Amino acid sequence: MTQTWLTQEAADRLRAELTMLESSGRKEVTAKIEAARAEGDLKENGGYHAARDEQGKMEARIRQLKQMLENAHIGVPPASDDGKVGAGMVVTAIIAGDEMKFLIGSREISSGDLDVYSEKSPLGSAVLNQEIGAKVSYTAPNGRQISVEILAAEFYS
């Protein structure tokens, strides 16, 4: 399993979502399923099938949240700044001629103010563990080579 770095705020937000889904969320979906089941023939009951789909998506999100929180490193980013790009850092870079700021890590960390790239994405894997000032390139999904110059990297807070 991959370990995800989360701020305390992000971890609290995810725990609250998990609690809500496991309690009132499950009760609401169960009530929808029961109401649709009471309507009769389940083969042609769109409400029943929609409620079951909703239940499946909710249970998948519950599993995702549990796994993420179990394998998360929660708290303040590492104190030592070795000058390299790492998970949980906001990177400022010139990408294909344009300056851009983005977060390396999980979208769950961000409060929505930055683009987020996974460490496993083409851009994320190109800049991960690179030093400030490094010039690297990666291959985009369309096959194009894209150049990146790392200007700065700081821990997200």
Backbone CA Rg: 21 Å
The succession of helices and strands, N to C, reads: EHHEEEEHEE
Describe the main β-sheet briefly.
5 strands, mixed
Distance between the termini: 24 Å
Describe the structure.
The chain has 157 residues and is an alpha/beta fold. It folds into 2 domains: 4-74, Helix Hairpins; 89-155, Roll (Chitinase A, domain 3). Helices cover 39% and strands 25% of the residues. It has 3 helices and 7 strands. The strands form 2 sheets. The chain has a 5-stranded mixed β-sheet with strand order 5-4-3-7-6. Helix 1 runs antiparallel to helix 2.
Task: Write a compact overview of the structure shown.
With 157 residues, this protein is an alpha/beta fold. It has two domains: 4-74, Orthogonal Bundle (Helix Hairpins); 89-155, Chitinase A, domain 3 (Roll). It is built from three helices and seven strands; from the N terminus they run βααββββαββ.
Features:
157 residues, alpha/beta, Chitinase A, domain 3, five-stranded mixed β-sheet, two-stranded parallel ribbon, 2 domains, Helix Hairpins
Which SSEs are present, and which pair or pack?
Layout: E1 4-6, H1 8-37, H2 46-70, E2 72-74, E3 89-95, E4 98-104, E5 115-117, H3 122-127, E6 135-139, E7 145-155
Parallel strand pairs: 1-2, 4-5
Antiparallel strand pairs: 3-4, 3-7, 6-7
Helix pairs in contact: 1-2
